[in-house]
Structure formats: C-alpha cells, structure tokens
Amino acid sequence: MEGEEPQNIIKEGKAEILVLEKNVFYNPVQEFNRDLSVGVLSLFAREKHEKSTGTQNEAVKNNPTDHAGVKHENGITILEALSATGLRSIRYAKEVPYVRQIVANDISSKAVECIKKNIQHNKVDELITPSHEDATMVMYQNRKTRFDAVDLDPYGCPSIFLDGAVQCLANGGLLLVTATDMAVLAGNSPETCFVKYGAVSLKSKACHEMALRILLQHIAAHAGRYGRYIVPLLSVSVDFYIRVFVRIYTGQVKCKENTSSLGLVYQCSGCESMAIHPLGMKKQNGGYKLPMGPPVDQLCKFCHHKHHIGGPIWLGPLHDQSFVRELIDSIEIMNLATSKRLIGVLKVVTEELDTPLYYVLDRLMSIVRCDTPSMVKFRSGLLNAGYNVSFSHAHRLSIKTDAPVDVVWDVVKAWEKMHPAKREKLGKDSPALAILTREFTKEISFDLHSSANPESRRLHMQRFQVNPTANWGPGARSTTIVDPSEKTSKRARNQNKHKKKLEETSCSDSPPPKQQKTNV
Fold first, then answer.
1. Do 277 and 245 fall within a single domain?
2. pLDDT digits over 196-225, tens only?
3. C-alpha to C-alpha distance for 10 and 91, rounded to whole angstroms
4. How far apart, in whole angstroms, are the C-alpha atoms of residue 137 and residue 146?
5. Same domain for 388 and 267?
6. Is residue 64 in a domain?
7. CB-based contacts of 352, cutoff 8 Å, min separation 6
8. What is the arithmetic mean of pLDDT over 296-319?
C-alpha cells in the first residue's frame, strides 16, 4: 500500500539499515545503549572542539545535533571495532557533531559488505571508512596515529580487545565498553571471571555494581601496563549488560594510584555483611603505604560465619558527576527515542553516593525473617542516625550508604523490634538470631526525614527497566560466517550431531565398550 514503510529497512535514530539477509544481527533492546553512546560522544566531541578552539558555540549547546553529518577537519576520530551492520557508526556519523572520521570495522566479509551498502544508503561515505580486519589488528596498527574514541560492543566478554584499545587511544581519549557476560561477572562462575577479568566475582545482591567495578579494574590494569590511567565518566548496569565510558590518560605518577583505587571484598557467608579492604593507601604528603589488614576477624562479628573473598574491584568513583549533569541537559534537547528512560537513569546516577557497593532492602529483612518496611522508612532510619543514603541505578531496592554495617543492622533490629520475627523458629546457629540478639550501637528513629524520598523517585521518573518485551535479552550470537571458504554455518554443521553419533555407533560391527565402575 502507498505510504507504508518498506519491510526491508530498519530505522533507528537518523540511521536506516538495509536488511540484506534473514539473520541480520539487530537487537532493538540495545537502542538504549546506542542512544546513551550518541549522547556521551556528542558531549565529548563538543567539549573537545571547544577546548581546541577556545570558543563555545551556544547554537551547538542548544542543539547538539548541529554540525553533525558533515566532515570537520578538526573533529574527532572514532573506531567502532565490531561494527556488524554498521548501525552504530552510521548513527554517530549522522547524530554526533564535530566528527572527522569513523572507521567501521568487522572481521566478517559479509558484515563489511553490509556496512558498505548501509554507508551508501545513508549517504555518509565522506565520514565512514569500512574496514575488513581483525579488531585487535586495527587497534595495534593505529598505536601511533591513534583514535579519539574507541567503541567496543562485543557479544560477551570484551577482555581480548582491551590491550589494543588502551594503546590506540589519544591522550584523554574516550573508551566505550560493553560486557554482556553477566552470569560470569555476577558470581555464577568466579573461576571463569578470574580467567577473563583477573578478579573473583561474588554471588551478592550488589553483583551488578560489582560487575562494573570488576570491568573498570580490568581496564585500569591494561592501561597501567603502558603508563596510562583511567578516569570513569559514566558506568551503568542496565537490562542484561554493563556499559562503561572512561577517558584514558598518560601519566606514570597517576598510575601508582591504582593500588589505592583497587581493593578486595569480604562478604560473610551467613548474613552477607560486606567489608572493603584497599590494596594500598595514599598518604597525605602524596606517598603510598600498605594497609594493615584484613578488615574482618576470622568469623563475622555479627553472625559468626566465615567470609568469602572477592575482587580486586575498582574502588574509585564510577561517574564524573559534573559530566553526567551536563549529559542530562544535553539529552533533554536531543531527539532520542529512549530519552525519557535515559534521563531517569542518569538522574539516579547524580543522586548516587560515591561509596562502593550496596545492600538490598528485602534481602536485609529476609535474613532476619522479618516484614519489610517501606523504602522511605528504612532510609529515614539511616538519615536520622546521621548518615547519608541513596539508591543505586543498578537495583530498585538498593541501599547505598556511608553508614558502617553495625548501623545498618541497628536499623534492621529497630524495625524488627516494632514488627517481631518468630524467633522460636530461628535455629540457634542462624545468622538471624545472632544479629537480633546483639546490642544496639545507635538509637534509631523512623520519623520521616526530608531527604528520605529522592527527587527521581518523588517525580516518578522512569528509573529502572520496564516489563520485558518480546525482544528482551542479549539476542543470539551473530550467525555470519567469518571465513568465506566455509560453505555452512556452525549451527548448520552441528544440527542433529547427537543423532548422527548414535547412528554411527549402531552401524559399527563391534559393540560399544562397557564403562568401568569407579568407587567414589
């Protein structure tokens, strides 16, 4: 029918992607990721342009997409190392101002053909250069010329790309990294996490923030090998992945701060209380010293259980708050499909305390087998005790506070005193009984505190993921064949492989060998 959109075109932002084959890799859930990246890169490019020229363009500040879509000789250079269809690169070309060149790379020949067609269709030939190469080779080959921004958005773990990425970035360059292997980062496979990220993950209610801090310490470790250090601008855990935006600088002296920016996490196996132990400490005169430790006894002082040890994790700030506030102002006037949720998430980020990790309200109360109070009442208890408290953008029931763990349990005990748990059903060795019978260290009041309900919650901003849709999840790994000499995909070759193996066994002249029994 006339006026209907063609069925073979995907539109997102100002980009249009041609669907050239049935299994094109496009995940609509990741639009939030791409919108956020457009916003961050736009602000980064504008600030870099203003710094290099010494002038501020108010027109661009009022409309960030001005000066986008045309080549700027003094603009930024961007590498999208794993480009697939080229959608992200095309959006950067058409929506990010002050761009000189974008390299859209992919190892798959089919993907590169798709990128070329999409570049022509969107008329951004002047800005985007397609590249058919291994992503790591592109980065190593550009260690001298260097890029202003490198975007890594792999399927799964980004570790193998980080060594090249930290080397091919200009001083002060922006590194954008996604990790989708959340099961590994969230504690389901700590030994695999150590292999991939050089840190042990823990099963914790704060696992999503711990995932961010594990990734940041891993990037910092790669950068440190080359006398470089990281400054995180924004680190978010959303949907099924984490995404970090960090600037990479050169400076051997600052690299030494890594020891005081990294630490281990001690988590009680009973009550799940957490303690942080930094690997190093910075002296007031500028030197460094080793900390005394560990910060916990052999048994937890609250419930007398042993501890699990995780990390190292990044202990420094997750965000540059001034950058995030500017980003909100910028996104408010940009035409992004997910701007409502972007602003909600970023607003929570601006409210976050700069303290590592968090507790979760319903989990705290379930440990002592007690009814759960409202979030406002629990926050009021901490605020009235003289401490700060905030949400984390990573969990809707998070309790992020600078109060010591003793005070957190004091608030829990004070609520339980008003709403008693059935103590007769608690075992004598249970964490709940040990916590509830401890003496109070603070007097707790649940009177409503003026700061108990933050602005983002009071205004009902869209802070967390809405109900999952039909497209929910990371999507299937791309089925594009990397080696053109291969005639069939791996999935096709593996079809019915178990059935084929059984048929081969049944056709064999000799019977299958008997399995030996082993005493265990």
1. yes
2. 999 999 999 999 999 999 999 999 999 999
3. 13
4. 13
5. no
6. yes
7. 318, 319, 390, 391, 392, 393, 400
8. 97
